[in-house]
Specification:
The complex is a heterodimer of chains A (396) and B (261).
Chain A lengths: L6 E2 L2 E5 L2 H17 L3 H14 L6 E3 L1 H7 L3 E6 L9 H14 L4 E6 L3 H12 L3 E7 H6 L1 H9 L3 E5 L6 H14 L4 E3 L10 H9 L1 H14 L5 E6 L3 H7 L9 E9 L10 H4 L1 E5 L1 E6 L24 H8 L3 E7 H15 L5 H13 L8 E6 L7 H7 L7
Parallel strand pairs in A: 4-14, 5-6, 5-8, 6-7, 9-10, 9-14, 10-13
Antiparallel strand pairs in A: 1-2, 2-12, 3-4, 11-12
Chain B lengths: L12 E7 L5 H13 L5 E4 L10 H12 L4 H11 L7 E4 L2 H7 L1 H11 L3 E3 L12 H7 L2 E6 L7 H6 L5 E4 L15 H11 L4 E4 L5 H8 L4 E4 L1 H10 L4 H20 L1
Parallel strand pairs in B: 1-2, 1-8, 2-3, 3-4, 4-5, 5-6, 6-7, 7-8
Helix pairs in contact in B: 1-11, 4-5, 9-11, 10-11
Chain lengths: 396, 261
């Protein structure tokens, strides 16, 4: 859906320092070659199936469905992937691509730590060096993931600049990449940043919607009425939406982190509160002030705590193909607890934003309607933070 | 021909970078005047950005101090208007694409022309994206300055052919900040530039000492110094004008000596 210059409508592009241009062009050329290379695709499919545990299950959440009393709800279980989230899909693809490019070192940003863990995992598997940039604030919120990355052999660099969260981790990874390009691939974790990243990451994540389509046709003999996923940068949502974009009858709903509410400054709901801008290599929507200074966004979820959104989401919003709704911390925490109790599935706090929205809309829908929620990750990493949110200190 | 060419008529050019509003605009005014009086040929005025991805820790710090002091694009425009009463050397803005985009390209660039800002440097706007602002810059006669990096290779000719004002040659990989050694083969880069344009070349990133400035000027038309000056401002705060003035004089003298050799 992107054109030659990596545009999605007016969004996208390559707003990066000249120092990175040749590396980005090299990456684009390599990707254009390997995406159609049977050997590359065979290797990637093998990694997906044998290593990551794909295809992930499409699980009929019968108890959740009954509890809400409306639409039939399926969960796309990306939380069951190796490393516990959808992030592994993109990382295996990019690490394999980096290998083909002769790179020996992966760098990555991470918010909740899921992308960092996935990158550290792929680096360990493929015998590559790995450095992960993580906002200092997030290293505290997600201490367990920091330990996991170190255990996997990665170096974790706490980022103290700016708001010390995901956006600053991205900035720092970009700075690192400009200083060391020859042997290093920047394994960007979401459908954002300069072209070709939004396209590459979307293509590697599109396995999610490809599988949902096959699985739902097998189980129900028809397409779902809605596909729902959480959106920070937007990689699991883009992966969940992609193969349904042409199916106009399928509603695509992205759930943004509203933090303490979209009428407060403590929010990260970019499409709901932001405006058009240029940042981190792309033109898209950003939370920013009247002079274009990027806003210090907030969400309980370290993985959605980002002031921008991927350019293809911005485009799907512009053309009205997808809807983007805000979900608050409170709603997400309730959903986190509700799914745990009703289905025995502890979802990531990020994914809980999507579940929370379904808790609002499913009861209003007829029983013959079908919705699919992508559970992008598992929630073990969030237990300490949610306990704190509920006033309980459980010392991890 | 743009006013920027005048900066390169006085031997090798010395180009200091100063972040507007660090620590406040009154101090910036005194620093800019001190730099101009002591031989600066062109001044890069930084409009601070919340997330300056091309900057190292020193200039990031200046951006944070300036923004926490409450400086805005509008206040900087008023400041430059006032500065232009007596500061005659060429001035360019250095900022990030979103600062211009968010203000509105037409509104930002026409204001630059009106207040006497001769050019704009945007480190996150590569050749492929310059149409975002280039047509508006051309309309108002404001030069959009292009950058060339050590990794540019076969892109140098393409960039040089369409260059306006001067070419900003990035000396090293990485972000801004002082470096003890610069190892890039800058002479070869500048040679390719010369084959493709007569627009002057200035080298920046990592330069702090008179010796480095001399060395860099032997292969270019001028040198740009940012972090070393920002460090002086960080250290001396509101009293930074005279140390910056002395530093500029020392650097310009070194360049003059190099030009005579």
């Amino acid at each position: 859906m992107s054109n030659m210059n990596g545009r999605f409508g007016i969004h996208g592009g390559q707003y990066i320092p000249e120092t990175l241009m040749n590396a980005i062009i090299e990456l684009e050329q390599a990707y254009n070659h390997y995406k159609n290379d049977p050997e590359f695709n065979r290797e990637l499919t093998e990694l997906f199936n044998e290593y990551a545990g794909r295809p992930s299950r499409l699980y009929y959440a019968e108890k959740l469905t009954k509890a809400l009393g409306g639409a039939k709800i399926y969960l796309k279980r990306e939380d069951l992937n190796h490393t516990g989230s959808h992030k592994i899909n993109n990382v295996l693809g990019q690490a394999l691509l980096a290998k083909k490019l002769g790179k020996t070192r992966l760098i990555a940003e991470t918010g909740a730590g899921q992308h960092g863990v996935a990158t550290a995992t792929a680096a360990a598997l493929m015998n590559m060096e790995c450095v992960v940039f993580m906002g200092e604030e997030d290293t505290k919120r997600q201490a367990l993931n920091v330990y996991r990355m170190k255990l996997l052999g990665a170096e974790v660099i706490p980022v103290t600049s700016g708001t010390a969260t995901l956006k600053d981790a991205v900035s720092e990874a970009m700075r690192e990449w400009t200083s060391r390009i020859d042997d290093t691939h920047y394994c960007l974790g979401s459908v954002m940043g300069p072209h070709p990243f939004p396209t590459i990451v979307r293509d590697f994540q599109a396995v999610i919607s490809k599988e949902i389509k096959v699985q739902i046709l097998e189980k129900e003999g028809r397409l779902p009425d809605a596909v729902i996923a959480c959106v920070g940068g937007g990689s699991n949502a883009m992966g969940s939406f992609y193969h349904f974009i042409e199916d106009e009858g399928v509603r695509l709903i992205g759930c943004e982190a509203a933090g303490r509410g979209i009428d407060t400054f403590e929010t990260a709901a970019t499409i709901n509160t932001g405006r058009l801008g240029i940042f981190h290599g792309m033109k898209s929507y950003f939370c920013q002030d009247e002079y274009g200074q990027i806003a210090p966004v907030y969400s309980i979820s370290a993985g959605l705590d980002y002031p921008g959104v991927g350019p293809e989401h911005a485009y799907l919003h512009d053309i009205g193909r997808a809807e983007y709704v805000p979900v608050t911390d409170d709603e997400a925490v309730n959903a986190f607890e509700f799914l745990s109790k009703t289905e025995g599935i502890i979802p990531a706090i990020e994914s809980s934003h999507a579940i929370a929205h379904v808790m609002k809309i499913a009861p209003e829908m007829d029983k013959d309607k079908i919705v699919v929620i992508t559970v992008s990750g598992r929630g073990d990493k969030d237990c300490a933070a949610i306990a704190r949110y509920r006033g309980e200190d459980i010392h991890e | 021909m743009s006013n920027i060419r005048n900066a390169f008529k006085n031997g090798k050019a010395f180009i200091p970078f100063i972040t507007c509003g660090d620590p406040d605009l009154e101090t910036t005014g005194r620093i800019v005047r001190a730099a101009a009086e002591n031989g600066a040929d062109l001044i890069e005025l930084g409009i601070p950005f919340s997330d300056p991805t091309a900057e190292g820790p020193v200039i990031q710090g200046a951006n944070i101090r300036a923004l926490s002091g409450g400086v805005t694009t509008d206040k900087i425009f008023d400041f430059v208007r006032e500065l232009r009463r007596d500061v005659k050397i060429p001035l360019v803005f250095m900022t990030y694409a979103n600062v211009v985009f968010s203000y509105g390209a037409e509104r930002f660039i026409s204001t630059c022309a009106e207040i006497g800002v001769d050019g704009i440097i945007l480190p996150d706007l590569p050749f492929e994206e310059k149409d975002e602002f280039q047509p508006v810059c051309a309309k108002y006669g404001v030069d959009l300055i292009s950058l060339i990096a050590p990794t540019s290779h076969q892109r140098i000719a393409m960039i040089a052919k369409e260059a306006d004002g001067f070419l900003y040659v990035v000396s090293s990989l990485g972000v801004t900040g002082t470096r003890s050694e610069i190892t890039t083969d800058l002479a070869s880069i500048v040679n390719v530039v010369r084959e493709n344009t007569d627009v002057p070349c200035a080298i920046g990133f990592g330069i702090s000492t008179p010796e480095q400035a001399q060395k860099m000027s032997s292969v270019s038309d001028g040198v740009i110094v940012g972090s070393a000056i920002i460090k002086l401002i960080e250290k001396h705060g509101r009293d930074a004008a005279s140390p910056v003035g002395e530093y500029v004089k020392k650097m310009k003298d070194a360049l003059k000596a190099a030009s005579c050799e």
